[in-house]
DNA sequence: ATGAAAGCGCTAACAC
DNA sequence: GTGTTAGCGCTTTCAT
């Protein structure tokens, strides 16, 4: 504490070599005789020397840290944090993937905001999850020339060559998957409940749903509820659906907590799930698995999305060719009791 | 992109002042005439100048980033991530609190490991959640003189003056709270299910439970299952409890997923919750709320713990007096159906 | 194979 | 109130 930490100079002196040599033995640049290397290593060890990452960062103009902008953190009210499972799995997997790339993962809220922590800008690149229409952050990063990738497309962004690189969340395919599944499990009056954030997931799902409804020749019925309302939002959505027109016999709710809240109301109203109403959530969560009945969902596989995002960003940072993830689809349908066709009575 | 970003020098030249003046106008040090400040600000604006955080960091020997070591990330298998709710809420709240202190929050795995990302060490300080007995990370940080705070005490650490500063998780009080609640709801053969990590939560709960059992004159019955086994761990624990001696009529399971798994097995065995067995989980989660029946729990209030940890660390970093959190207790019992006394029949 | 020296962008004495 | 200048700890030509 009292004695300052050793620098490259101390090691050089102690090993009787120049700082260049020390630098080289650690970075692997240049050439250093094995014997010398050994001496340097020993000296460093003895002194407890660790290269100063900040100094390296200044020199290399690269800190080894990437930032994750979680829109769920944009608010000052962490109690509003929604989609906890998705966030946790994404952040966790992103951190692990980053470490595998030798990078640190910083959690930041929107750095375009007035309260932007300076540190946020120290990162080498950004991962932006679920950017929204004409996202100001995307605009800022683009104009500042800061490398970034998004998870999900940026709605409204020009699809020109300059379109920001992103990890495909396959919202179109997954929406169809969920809707077809509801159809096949017998539903014919299928409603959609979306969140209100203007991100790809909400917007594309709605668009696909409209097309799908036309194709199936059913009357579309949609409700939009803010994500952060959680169960309460789901309850309201269900109430709205029940109040307006014939009760749906299938619901696709994009947010897990909305699905949960909806089931509550339906059950309270004496409707049986899945016999009277089938339901599928558009995002998986523990609570869906534990619910009664367990609720089917689209597992977006945030772990995989995070891994891809980190890989993609890391590749861009290194100027490496970007990995092609298009081979393997991501996201899958998890069928649980809430949408399972009634088991044949033995 | 092609043109390098402007430095303090460029701004100085463009504003017709010295670099010192520019530095001062931005840091607030020294004194700069308002008029000059204005000129500098304008010039900076025009050039799109942002102080380089890394250079500042090098100079000040402080980056403005703190690291959160989440033990759940120590593994390379993010799918093993357990206690997702706790992690997400903690990380989210920590990130928000950090931002409020003008700090960034970095997620890192154990930096003592061989694969330590260099960047991890760039942080100004560390938050270590749930350190384990004789934690090597705690030892490393201590000997390296790196500021840190832990959430929960470090078991086995000397309680000497040098004992690492920590946020009190009140494990003793909360364990008693849970056990007394089970007792009051009618349970008399109360078993404890803990995880196997050697952290304060597991160790102190076990110790308190033993004392409490003696005091209540009941025969202690404990099972330890690894946290990452999740539901399966809970199932095993319940099976073990049922196989050995008289079936418990009350279970306190420290991990939420263990509680969930246990309820599954109990129900399968024809036992009714809470009528035959009352159950309380030692960590809250969405899935407990959505479970059937909803499961009571100790809400550790990770949001609050995170906030306190960040505040404590930030204060230490600035040499400010550390906030005294002892005033307000943290953690509370959330009573749900799994341990509610049967409602009086109308 | 090794070393001297010039910075990376910024801050903080210390002059004026 | 403003400017000069010496570094922070490291990497990297370019000599030797």
From TrEMBL, chains A, B:
<dbReference type="GO" id="GO:0000976">
    <property type="term" value="F:transcription cis-regulatory region binding"/>
</dbReference>
<dbReference type="InterPro" id="IPR000843">
    <property type="entry name" value="HTH_LacI"/>
</dbReference>
<dbReference type="InterPro" id="IPR028082">
    <property type="entry name" value="Peripla_BP_I"/>
</dbReference>
<dbReference type="InterPro" id="IPR046335">
    <property type="entry name" value="LacI/GalR-like_sensor"/>
</dbReference>
<keyword id="KW-0238">DNA-binding</keyword>
<keyword id="KW-0805">Transcription regulation</keyword>
<dbReference type="Pfam" id="PF13377">
    <property type="entry name" value="Peripla_BP_3"/>
</dbReference>
<dbReference type="InterPro" id="IPR010982">
    <property type="entry name" value="Lambda_DNA-bd_dom_sf"/>
</dbReference>
<keyword id="KW-0804">Transcription</keyword>
<feature type="domain" description="HTH lacI-type">
    <location>
        <begin position="6"/>
        <end position="60"/>
    </location>
</feature>
<protein>
    <submittedName>
        <fullName>DNA-binding LacI/PurR family transcriptional regulator</fullName>
    </submittedName>
</protein>
<dbReference type="GO" id="GO:0003700">
    <property type="term" value="F:DNA-binding transcription factor activity"/>
</dbReference>
<dbReference type="Pfam" id="PF00356">
    <property type="entry name" value="LacI"/>
</dbReference>
